[in-house]
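SAMPLE LOG
Freezer: B-3
Tube label: C17
Construct: single chain, 424 aa
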Amino acid sequence: MDYQPRVVDALLDRLCDDLPAIAIEGARGVGKTATATRRAKTVIALDDAGEFALTRANPRRILEVPRPLLLDEWQLLPGVWDGVRRAVDAGAGPGDFLLTGSATPTKAPRHTGAGRIVRVRMRPMALAERGVSVPTVSLADLLTGSRARVGGESQLELADYAEEITGSGFPALRAVPVRSRREAIAGYLSECLDRDLPNIDAAVRRPGILRNWLRAYAAASSTVSAYAKILDAATPAEGDKPAKATATGYREALERIWLLDPLPAWLWGRGTLRDLAVAPKHHLADPALAARLLGVSAKAMLEQPNPDRPAVPRKGTLAGALFESLTTLCVRVYAQASGAEVSHLRTHRGDHEVDLIVERDDGRVVALEVKLAPDVDDHDVTHLHWLKSQLGDDLLDAVVVNTGRGAYRRDDGIAVVPLALLGP
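STRUCTURE (predicted):
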């Protein structure tokens, strides 16, 4: 399969020019190995039994092979992390070491790698990477605060977005014919739960309930539902519910294999907003995983506003929630290219919410609301106007991301941008 260029490539190229060791982290199958291999002269794949045995028997091997060296699935032999750290201390050159991992090991390396090994998160493909459209509105431009004119026409309709939600941003899964993709995604989930969790020594008691918990988490996509409510939804008929600590263990284990990708709450550092909630918003690594866990096809998602799923409180439809998850994935990929952080805003009482806050390193932000509809009215921008009243010039721009055809600015200056037209 030909390599599909990724937004993160430019960041990795810069880091490899400047820094000796980069760790690329993310879920299984996200494309880490393909991306890193293009930058490596030697690849040691530690998920290969022979390579693993050779490297464990001779830890100095990583210092003897030609560089740049890629240590693929390094977490299977955590000692190599410390070996790379020592090599950096000894004067390794720019781009000498790349490490890729699909999990965080239970037994952490002796040294965190802070100051020596830079971590880069890689996520599933955003729409701009999938080749389904040509972006005309750049998030980097929005972050300048110039409020330039936006424009462009998209050919994607609501049904196309539903297909992208269920079609996945994992390169190998997208390569599977559509007629077999649901089964391929189910197989991916089984591999993660049945193979990856044991590989990191994650002790999972009652694996059936873990799967139910993950399904309930999928039903809670794009909400801030309490974890206790997710557990209740996962075990509605259980007289002997697992302890809170057990459910916490489920969440931590799934985060360690990067299946969960919660969006943190925004806490503005300048002090004028004091009533902000701190709960993260729930998202899986890819909304296609959530759709598959809930047994929802693209067609059913649009025909059944609330298909059968665990009873987790939410506003709106499941389709709207998963479109927000897809938008969140895309914005996180694009924001990383600009060195910006992404979060969500919600006041304690829930009277004000903004779906996505993209923050520059100086604290100034672009705010985005997400709407699963082609049209935008004054009601849809209420919270964006409120945020402008709170932040003033620190709000660089405000956007409603929707499923319409054209990008434009409203008379009040707020940009309306179809997701297919948004890019890095």
